[in-house]
Amino acid sequence: ALKLKKRQQHQRKPPSPPGFPIIGNLHQLGELPHQSLWSLSKKYGPVMLLKFGSIPTVVVSSSETAKQALKIHDLHCCSRPSLAGPRALSYNYLDIVFSPFNDYWKELRRICVQELFSPKQVHLIQPIREEEVKKLMNSFSESAAQKTPVNLSEKLASLTVGVICKAAFGVSFQGTVLNSDNFDKLIHDAFLFLGSFSASDYFPNVGWIIDWLTGLQGQRERSVRGLDAFYEQMFDLHKQGNKEGVEDFVDLLLKLEKEETVLGYGKLTRNHIKAVLMNVLLGGIGTSAITMTWALTELMRNPRVMKKVQSEIRNQIGRKSMISLDDIDQLHYLKMVINETWRLHPPAPLLVPREVMSEFEINGYTIPAKTRLYVNVWAIGRDPDTWKDPDEFLPERFVNSNIDAKGQNFELLPFGSGRRMCPAMYMGTTMVEFGLANLLYHFDWKLPEGMVVEDIDMEESPGLNASKKNELVLVPMKYLNQ
Ligand code: HEM
Predict the structure, then answer these.
(1) What's the CA-to-centroid distance between 286 and ligand 1, angstroms?
(2) What tens digit of pLDDT does each residue of 238-280 get?
(3) What number does the ligand 1 atom closest to the CA of 164 have?
(4) What's the CA dihedral at 239, 242, 247, 248 to 10 degrees?
(5) What is the chain's percent helix, strand, coil content, to nearest 5?
(6) How many CA atoms lie within 13 A of 130 on its CB side?
(7) Closest CA to 297 of 332, 344, 232
(8) Which candidate, 37, 216, 252, 322, has a CA 20 to 30 Å from the CA of 460?
(9) Beta bridge pairs of residue 365
(10) Nearest 5 degrees, angle CA 349-CA 431-CA 128?
(11) Closest-CA residue to 139 (of 158, 120, 125, 124)
């Protein structure tokens, strides 16, 4: 006991903002936790200890401390906390995102990287991307002819839903199987529960009572039942075998089931497949659409950058009707625009929470096992010690810089880093590059009548993903050199 006491005396805790009994620092989270935590980190430093309800939580907010956590000590902190919202949606953590760190997760992740997210698969679904982008361009052409504004937030969201539905489930979003209103609501609610701050996440013993009283529990169950019915419908469709086109994710996963693939502790079952499909739906849809919307928003606010990126694309492509993935590789300035968008608007501003598995130290502070860990990549993107003029949208800062978004540079981490890094980075990046390149090639964009550049707002919406709160509405004008 004496030894233990001595050890504890040697341990240094990270600085903490003062909190209240029971709720701890929960009241300081506010509507946009990444922003509130950024303010706190300016005062308490790049490693802070907070208490959310009864859960000790460490927040790291600089590139150096992020590197400590995600690279040097990754193996100490690459598990996930058990959260109430994700539990039901992931069939008790059978998915990749929320599974604790164990052999099952390792094998599931490996097999999904091989079968679903591989460069080969990303190229195989390129015809799907082309078809959906073509549909979108046609709808913009109509609006351009009539000089009517389009809601880009909505259009870009339905573009990614269209691509994911076709690639994962082999069905058309606008087709007969999915009633698009219902489906929208299903996805919307699931997102809400995934990101909702649920009382049971902060008060493990009594929180469920609060969630039950507030009705959160009931709503969550309805959302899970809706999604479950959707997956079942997809399985039935695949059983009937009257589907055409490339092998989709459901085909690939059902094949693994048929081959009696063993993952960690047992065979792959329907629930495992459903949990992976949840990741694909909820991980794949929002993130790319959010990035494209923010990029276009920033370009509208910075006409110089807009002109430059459009010239690059138009000079490179010439008079082709469709841009190819090889063309995109040559669009260096476009890639800088996207990196700059991710610096200021990472779609997952606090990544996905991690749980510490065994004690380690950052900057001399002890972080004990079971601590919840957040990396504030939103704050890192705006850190004046790392970025000159951090508030400026300046893609040129990436000229002659080795910094990219692939998880090796801790200044820019839209996909996270380490063992838990996004396994679908290539798929997500391709969607964003291809979507934006087409949008900027075929159209010039104008603000609606009566609006000026200064009217464009940059407010973020609350939730797991920091999307643009107010919709981006613009008028397309067809680029005529085609
Ligand atoms: C622009 C697009 C995307 C961005 C910015 C993004 C970002 C992220 C981030 C920040 C994480 C957490 C990393 C961490 O904890 O360190 C993550 C994890 C994950 N993402 Fe993505 N993502 C994108 C696209 C996608 C797509 C298209 C899919 C699937 C089709 C996907 C599937 C996943 C999965 C399964 C995980 C969990 C990894 C694990 O816990 O082992 N993501 N993503």
Answers:
(1) 11
(2) 887 666 667 899 999 999 999 998 998 889 999 999 999 999 9
(3) 30
(4) -70
(5) 55, 10, 35
(6) 11
(7) 344
(8) 216
(9) 362
(10) 145
(11) 158
Burial label for 106, CB within 10 Å (0-12, 13-18, 19+), is middle
Token pair, residue 192, equals 């809400």
Closest CA to 405 of 352, 327, 337: 337
ipTM above 0.85, yes or no: yes
Alpha-carbon gap, residue 340 to 404, rounded angstroms = 10
Distances (CA, A) of 397 to 63, 165, 343, 381, 415: 17, 36, 11, 13, 20
CA of residue 348 to ligand 1 center, whole Å: 9
CB 415 near ligand 1, within 6 Å: yes
User: Are 369 and 357 a contacting pair, CB within 8 Å?
Assistant: yes
Q: Is the CB of 129 under 6 A from ligand 1?
A: no
Q: Which residue type sits at 449?
A: E
Q: Is 351 in the pocket of ligand 1 (CB under 6 A)?
A: yes
- The pLDDT of residue 29: 80
**Residue 105 alpha carbon, nearest atom of ligand 1:** 41
Residues 6+ apart with CB under 8 A from 378: 34, 35, 38, 346, 349, 350, 466
Average pLDDT, the chain: 89
Q: What is the pLDDT of residues 296-305, one digit of tens each?
A: 999 999 999 9
pTM of the model: 0.93
Q: At 54, is the secondary structure helix, strand, or coil?
A: coil
Residues 6+ apart with CB under 8 A from 95: 86, 275, 276, 278, 279
Cβ of 371 less than 6 Å from ligand 1: no
Q: Which atom in ligand 1 lies closest to the alpha carbon of residue 80?
A: 40
**Euclidean distance between CA atoms 83 and 98, whole angstroms:** 8
Q: Which atom of ligand 1 is nearest to the CA of 427?
A: 27
Cα dist from 391 to 101, 306, 448, whole Å = 37, 17, 26
For ligand 1, atom 15, the nearest C-alpha belongs to 352
- pLDDT cut 90: percent of the chain above it: 67
